[in-house]
Amino acid sequence: MPKPIDYPTVHIALADRSYDIAIAAGLLGSDAAWAQLPRAHAALIVTNSTVAPLYAKRLEQALAGVYAQVHTVVLPDGEAYKNWETLNLIFDALLGHGCDRHTVLFALGGGVVGDMTGFAAASYMRGVPFVQVPTTLLAQVDSSVGGKTAINHPLGKNMIGAFYQPERVVCDLDTLVTLPQRELSAGLGEIIKYGPIADMAFLDWIEANLVALLAREPQALAHAVQRSCEIKAWVVAQDERETGLRAILNFGHTFGHAIEAGLGYGAWLHGEAVGCGMVLAAQLSRRLGGVDGAFVQRLSALIAAAGLPVRAPLLDATDNAGRYLELMRIDKKSVGGEIRFVLLDGPGRALVRAAPDALVRAVIDAGCA
Ligand code: NAD
Ligand code: GLY
After folding, report:
1. Distance between CA 305 and CA 15 in Å, rounded?
2. Rounded to an integer, what distance in angstroms lies between the CA atom of residue 369 and that of residue 364?
3. Does residue 244 share a domain with residue 151?
4. Domain of 264?
């Protein structure tokens, strides 16, 4: 019999697609975390070459008690591999092992593995169940929750994908111990995001606890993951498919995605691009009257203290702002080529709106290194 469930959970309320996020240290080795999984003959763990040697054995052992067959496919590591070719390795493994339409996929890794596994689950035999087992801070606070799955296209980030909810999310906080410091900072970028868009009290808490977070103090990390998931759950439950409100979760992402695509995927981490993108989005908000300079300064100081870049990179030597604009037009929020930014309408309040190109150019010119 599995042990009683005694870890905190955050519930994602989506009618028949509802699920829980389990958050605690040691979940990979706990029976309770793996109770009540979807029934099937086989499971496929999707992971990568960095995470596999650290955690695949533990997950394989946990799942061996649940499924008759547990297979593992190890993908190359990196944002640069979040593409069709790598996605196909998951389908090769599924078909090679004779996996049927009940097979459960387990995404063991960061957001890259999670986004690709989710997309594979959405499309293999027109849909099989999957479970997110996020092992980066960024994946635990954001990418594993809410059902956005995708791969990149050379012309644009996350351009090919599907909305497809996992059956469960299992966040083992112990996995964060092995995370490189730069990746921890990248996760802090997405945590900070929740403050200015929705919860200024959380922003105050992050400021007060930044040193503890950077030192990976377990209680601080547990609270940051739980509060982030609660805010994301609240947004996603109201707007699963981003017809409106959910877009606020993309604060900083329009500029950030342009940085990632413009520099080449992987040059800057996603969380770094988002951190810098939030500074640019806050500056644009200030020019449109949403927030004042003191607020932008406060946010920028926090992002820098978290170890993230606040000066944007040069993407083009002759027309840098033009290159940003060109890249930002290829964004899922764009309508008829008009860029829609997530901007602040006051501290703790976000909205989606267009902005004059001249203003955007001025923000980029002033914000670039
Ligand atoms: P990532 O998946 O590339 O992981 C970062 C690095 O950490 C990788 O090298 C990985 O192998 C390594 N790693 C993972 N867990 C580790 C551990 N416990 N110990 C040591 N190393 C470990 O990057 P990420 O920051 O987790 O995710 C970024 C991706 O997530 C981007 O592609 C982004 O577009 C996507 N994303 C998706 C959503 C969504 O809603 N679906 C939201 C935010 C971001
Ligand atoms: N990370 C943005 C979203 O999930 O909508």
Report:
1. 40
2. 10
3. no
4. 181-368
Q: Is residue 306 part of a domain?
A: yes
Which of these ranges, 12-26, 31-45, 347-361, has the smallest mean pLDDT?
31-45
For residues 315 and 326, what is the distance between their CA atoms, to the nearest angstrom?
A: 11
| Ligand 2 atom, smallest distance to 145 CA | 4
Tell me whether residue 311 is one of the annotated catalytic residues.
no
Residue 28 and residue 168 in one domain: yes
Residue 126 annotated to the active site: yes
Ligand 2 centre and the CA of 248: distance in Å? Answer: 8
Report yes or no on 3 lying in a domain: no
- Ligand 1: atom nearest CA of 190 is 43
- State the DSSP string of 73-140: EEEPPSGGG-SHHHHHHHHHHHHHTT--TTPEEEEEESHHHHHHHHHHHHHGGG---EEEEE-SHHII
Rounded to the nearest whole angstrom, what is the distance from the C-alpha of residue 108 to the centroid of ligand 1?
A: 10
Identify the nearest ligand to the CA of 185 by its number: 1
Predicted confidence (pLDDT) per residue in 157-191, tens digit: 899 999 999 999 999 999 999 999 999 999 999 99
Amino acid at site 49: S
Nearest CA to ligand 2 atom 5: 249
Please report whether residue 1 resides in a domain: no
Is pLDDT above 60 for 5? Answer: no
